Amino acid sequence: MRRKQLSAVLLLSCVLSASAQTAPPTQTPARHNLMPVPAALSFGAGRLPVTKSFTVAATGHTDERLRAGIDRAVRRLEGRTVMEFARGLAADAGGATLVVETRGPGRPVPAVEEDESYALEVTDRQAVLKAPTVVGALRGLETFLQLLDADREGFYVPAVRIQDRPRFRWRGLLIDIARHYQPPEVLKRNLDAMAAVKLNVFHWHLTEDQGFRIESKKFPKLHGLGSDGNFYTQEQARDIIAYARARGIRVVPEFDIPGHATAWLVGHPELGSAPGPYTIERRPGIFEPALDPTREEVYKFLDAFLGEMAALFPDAYLHIGGDENEGKQWDRNPRIQAFMKERGIKDNHALQTYFNQRLLKILRKYGKRMMGWDEIFQPDLPKDVVIHSWRGQTALAEAARRGYDGVLSNGYYIDLIFPTSQHYLNDPLPAGSTLTPAEAAHVLGGEATMWAEWVTEETIDSRIWPRTAAIAERLWSPREVTDVEDMYRRLAVTSVRLEELGLMHERNQAMMLRRLARGPDVWPLQTLAALVEPVKEYRRYQQRPQTMLSPLTGLVDAARPDSDAARRFHALVERVLADAPRFESHAEELRRVLGAWHDAGPELEALMDGSPALHEARPLAKDLAALGEAGLEALSYLSRGVEPPAEWRAARLAALDEAAKPKAALEFPVVAPVRRLVVAAAELPRLGSMTPAAWRAHVETLAAPPAPK
Amino acid sequence: MRRKQLSAVLLLSCVLSASAQTAPPTQTPARHNLMPVPAALSFGAGRLPVTKSFTVAATGHTDERLRAGIDRAVRRLEGRTVMEFARGLAADAGGATLVVETRGPGRPVPAVEEDESYALEVTDRQAVLKAPTVVGALRGLETFLQLLDADREGFYVPAVRIQDRPRFRWRGLLIDIARHYQPPEVLKRNLDAMAAVKLNVFHWHLTEDQGFRIESKKFPKLHGLGSDGNFYTQEQARDIIAYARARGIRVVPEFDIPGHATAWLVGHPELGSAPGPYTIERRPGIFEPALDPTREEVYKFLDAFLGEMAALFPDAYLHIGGDENEGKQWDRNPRIQAFMKERGIKDNHALQTYFNQRLLKILRKYGKRMMGWDEIFQPDLPKDVVIHSWRGQTALAEAARRGYDGVLSNGYYIDLIFPTSQHYLNDPLPAGSTLTPAEAAHVLGGEATMWAEWVTEETIDSRIWPRTAAIAERLWSPREVTDVEDMYRRLAVTSVRLEELGLMHERNQAMMLRRLARGPDVWPLQTLAALVEPVKEYRRYQQRPQTMLSPLTGLVDAARPDSDAARRFHALVERVLADAPRFESHAEELRRVLGAWHDAGPELEALMDGSPALHEARPLAKDLAALGEAGLEALSYLSRGVEPPAEWRAARLAALDEAAKPKAALEFPVVAPVRRLVVAAAELPRLGSMTPAAWRAHVETLAAPPAPK
Fold first, then answer.
1. d(CA B193, CA B198)
2. Mind listing the pLDDT tens digit for each residue in B585-614?
3. Which pLDDT tens digit goes with each residue over A657-706?
4. Could you say which of B87, B493, B507 has the minimum Cβ distance to residue A549?
5. Which of A165, A129, A154, A147 has its CA nearest to residue A76?
6. Which residues of A touch B230 (CB under 8 A)?
7. Fewest CB within a 10 Å sphere: which of A462, B111, B232, B484?
8. In angstroms, rounded to a whole number, what is the distance separating the alpha carbons of residues B556 and B455?
9. How many CB atoms lie within 10 A of CB A399?
């Protein structure tokens, strides 16, 4: 899928699209906390009170999956309202608070063709949810839960009419449980969260160089020797699949071949393109071991193995990976070279195509559609193969034009620690797309990818959530829903709501800081942790080399992507500068925030003295104090209307350049707004001769960060 | 075990013993963070650095359990230090950082006779842990982990010699998973925590009126109809037992009969003393359904069922409950009455004895020792029966005198929300005991009891931890270790350390407050939540009637026992008063704390307006502000040396009396120290004519809370 080239070429497009944050107004008629935003909604007058007598009735089709879904929703409503509601369904639909009218069960196995639409109408008398399928009803129940509001009078759902259906049929989350294993309960809470934001595909990345994590009864050495004992039994897999199905979520398994296959070869070196022996890979990166595509025994093995997996995983699709195989083992194997020569296979890409063609036959035999990463795409590929694109919208559009279904993951690499807004504005079918409607229909949707080099059970939720909720909105809601500020407002509410499902993305940070601080009193460390973000892209690999066996309990692991505190600070600075030339509005609040940074510095250093695991972060404590000091001084000049001495600007900007350098694989997103304050103070003299707006633009230009060297 | 009488009689003794907090000095030679305190330890000079090259070697006996235990310990050390250590055991013991020398495997099944002793010697060159058994080595590894310390130079373990063994052989935690079911992962993290504080018995309370939670393959209607589907499969039970064994923990199952048996009768009404039908009980309390002790079919059933369970649970002991059967169904059943008359069984107690005698035969047949609550004790009971005492030390001593083994739970009822100190000072063999050494040996130990009327997966850890760590110390450490202040100091560190095992006792509070506040900003609510405690004893039952189906997500559930903030506040007030007549020392800090309460009040009210689930807690916001105001005023009078007007005292004390009344099943433990401040201010005039010490005693007397009506 993914690694090496991605960095250089494609992140640029992310950055460019993210800068287009001056989005059109959203089409939502009122302020609400729905995420994803429904296709159509209009609020009415009135409200439906949610009281102790809350009941649900079901009419039309009902089955166990629907009943369980309603029960889960009612229990969550109880948890929020601290009221006990009746168990089971109400007999009298006329008197029920919520009526769920379902037409039919939908697909027995969740499918890409599932009708997920629903209509929800809430009046001050009753809420009526109508859906053609049970999955549609489940989606509508999540919307109903998101509508719950409250005030002095009590809990209520506002009067509203919603007609909703997803924009894309394939809305996924890939979790790599191979590089770091995750126990079933972690997957389950993430499935619950996926359902809460209407995602419908769990892409289970089951094999890697670093681990083979699914039990094979036919080839027990695969998981037996390839997983350190951390694998899913088939019973556990069936349990996860059932759990997902109950929530209207498909499970697409991935068995990544022919590359990324070290862990297969630990137990079965005879499948490899070099003799071995092999051991489970512990490093991050791209590795040479690959299956041998020239030997019939390999296909016999894959036939048996994939047959076993095809029976275990009921989904119509099976992902065969196919990415990042550089073929170095092939180059060095004379037998493989002879095979290629003999058959006129001109290069490794063509050899992999040969391999894929063989795989395709096997998968067809077992009734599965083949899916793979960009690399598998080539002109003579049958049209029923699905392209999973890490390369981007252009590659995806090209495939669609040729008639191939495709799924986008470029721009949704949540392991890269980019801000939510960037993922949010990344559209599988951007506004300028020249695809015909028929071609566009081949763009099935997208998948967020949780690659797991640097996540554990403790931290994975914080890498997935809440950012993935914004990706879920991109894939479900109309293209025009792009108001970044409103997204962040709703995301904050969504993040808290997701916690009721057991997610640890919010609560684990404080725990990790207590462990680092070796005690309960962590406020200065919390101040710092709220303001730093792990370095983005693949920089962590260089700056803080670790292996798959390293403890991921450092400050970089406790820190979270897309700092809320930094974003709020940025907005605060903008407000103060917008009040030129007086700089009074919000100045007091800004002064308090900067003062807290300044004060935290020394306390932080004392705390870090007693915590060797934080020694690497000591320079950050100094930077934090320096940021606070620079900001306070700048604010003081601005407030007093006093021009700072000439050397002050250079000294402060130098300090900020120092603070802008990552340390302990962490960086301060607040350097930029502090730089703006400093430049603004230094440019005070120009304010007399310019309009405030022109002056602000001038400051912004001067304060732009230095170009990377 | 437990409910009705307990309240009136026995809590008094708790209160009395808790007031004896002027404890003898501990015998520990230096300030350390060990919990429980070892039997003997002496610190030396020097330290053993813990660096990246940390390794462990094992000599003597090694087995899979030991290797896994060492591996877990090393992984935890990695988590704390953020250093990656070598996997597996070092080949060279001479060069290893830690050497574990184990003589033998110990008992194949964890047993009360297990030798858990160990010796640990740390020098600046090496740490050597010696133990006769693997379990002893596991205990020593926990001590080693607790010794980890750090400063500017890095992580280290101080030079120390420890000779350690438990004072009591039976150190348990009962978890009632019947009233509220807990998934296996909750039990596992609690088993890890038990091992961390050297507890060795997990008492699994598996059946109740409110749920039958273990799979019976012979009688599937028991769990099938008695559990709402929330039960442990036998495979899960075996997994839990293995998990416990790996940590040197016994698993003692309890099947509570003949009372507390409603859930058995849902599927098997024919076992009951009244015809039924029965449904799973949802209320808390004591209920009438009881097995029929007069019918042979009942014993045939119990023989088959207990035979099945005896095979599933390898422990030598099996707990049959036997508590709180009032025999009302027996009184009303003419056939049972005729049976009693015929056999000369004079009352229900005698009938239960008859039942127990029959049970005893069954258990002996399956090689199990019978254990039951106080009620089963009667003079003609064979001596191999173990008495589990909810009644107290006197009953336990009486049984011991007659030659019966006993285990104490009175005083360890952690569901009753008492402060840690109270449990801590509750000794199974108090200093004044008149038992001979041979008699005293019958007092096997004690068990903390987590009765589960009001706990869920979200809250159970906070009810068990960290308080149970202090009970663990009581049961392991020498009797003389009773310094309450030092216990609290170590408990704060222990609590943070326990989090690394996945416990939620610290981190879940913030999550619950966010849910209640319906958003991320909860600071005023946190201020309140840190200062209130759920009402104690069984008062919650009356003040906030709920059922087993009610959501336990209210403020009372988020609040925790034994408020740290309240204890710190109490100490702060003492310090200020100790500085009479100037009242300067710590006054500024006290003023800041009181000011925060005062300021939080209005913000809290605004927050609560938007959160109907907090409406019940509105009076607490007013109380908090009133407490802050009264304290600030009193402090102001004291600081200025100005006598308040006469009516001030009455008005403030009246406000405090109001604040002392529980609301929303919550109470303020800080009312007493604020009352002391108010009385001190009012009694300022007396300070001139008394010594400061006499004056303080005088204030203390006057400020004593009013006697309960």
1. 9
2. 999 999 999 999 999 988 999 999 999 999
3. 999 999 999 999 999 999 999 999 999 999 999 999 999 999 999 998 76
4. B87
5. A147
6. none
7. B111
8. 11
9. 23
- pLDDT higher than threshold 90 for residue A16: no
Give the per-residue pLDDT at B68.
98
Q: Is B365 on the interface with A (CB under 8 A)?
A: no
Question: B135: which 2 tokens?
Answer: 């379990």
Q: Does A441 reach chain B within 8 Å, measured CB to CB?
A: no
Q: Compute the CA torsion angle A333, A336, A338, A340 (nearest 10 deg).
A: -140
* B154 DSSP β-pair partners: B151
Chain A, window 175-214: residues with a beta carbon less than 8 angstroms from a chain B beta carbon: 183, 185
According to DSSP, residue A39 is labeled S
Q: Which of B82, B152, B192, B567 to mutate to test the interface with A (most CBs of A within 10 A)?
A: B82
CB contact under 8 A, A492 and B519: yes
Find chain A residues with C-beta within 8 A of B192's C-beta: none
CA–CA gap between residue B106 and residue B249 (Å, rounded): 13
Catalytic residue of the set B101, B116, B288, B324: B324
Which pLDDT score is estimated for B30? 57
In whole angstroms, how far apart are CA B199 and each of A158, B119, B134, B437, B509?
52, 18, 15, 23, 25
Q: Is A612 on the interface with B (CB under 8 A)?
A: yes
Determine whether the interchain pair A519/B493 forms a contact, defined as Cβ–Cβ distance below 8 Å. Answer: yes
* Mean pLDDT score, A581-605: 95
Give me the sign of the Cα torsion angle A449, A454, A456, A460: negative
Helix (H) or strand (E) holding A418: none
Cα–Cα distance measured from residue A274 to residue A300, given in angstroms and rounded to the nearest whole number: 19
As a whole number of angstroms, the distance between CA A621 and CA A659 comes to 10
Q: Is the CB of residue B175 less than 8 Å from the CB of residue B452?
A: yes
Q: How far is A491 from chain B (nearest CA, A)?
A: 11
Nearest C-alpha of chain A: how many angstroms from B612?
Answer: 5
Candidates A87, A508, A551; nearest CB to B78:
A551
Enumerate the residues of chain A whose CB falls inside 8 A of the CB of residue B554.
82
Cα(B415)–Cα(B460) distance, integer angstroms: 10
How many C-beta atoms surround the C-beta of residue A77 within 10 A? Answer: 21
CB environment B478-512: b (16+ within 10 A), e (fewer) = eeebbbbebbbebbbbbbbbbbbbbbbbbbbbbbb
CB contact residues (below 8 A), chain B span 545-564, against chain A: 546-547, 549-551, 553-554, 564
Does residue A499 belong to the interface with chain B, where contact is any CB pair within 8 Å?
yes
On chain B, the residues whose CB falls within 8 A of the CB of A565 are none
- CB atoms closer than 10 angstroms to residue A164: 24
pLDDT of residue A27: 38
Q: Is the pLDDT of residue B16 over 80?
A: no
* Residue linked to tokens 């799973």: B280
ipTM for the complex? Answer: 0.94
The shortest CB-CB distance from B84 to any of A151, A551, A609 is to: A551
Q: What's the CA dihedral at A270, A273, A277, A279 to 10 degrees?
A: -110
Tens of pLDDT, residue by residue over B283-296, are 999 999 999 999 99
pLDDT at A179 over 60: yes
Residues whose CB is less than 8 angstroms from the CB of residue B164 and which lie 6 or more positions away in sequence, other chains included: B38, B39, B40, B41, B117, B118, B119, B120, B139, B140, B143
- Is A9 at the interface with chain B, CB within 8 A? no
pLDDT exceeds 80 at position A28: no
Question: If contacts are CB pairs under 8 Å, which of residues 136-155 in chain B contact chain A?
Answer: 150-155
3-state secondary structure of B158: strand
Residue B338 backbone zone (phi > 0: left; psi -120 to 50: alpha; other: beta): alpha
**Beta-carbon separation of A514 and B520 below 8 A:** no
Confirm or reject contact between B33 and chain A (CB < 8 A): no
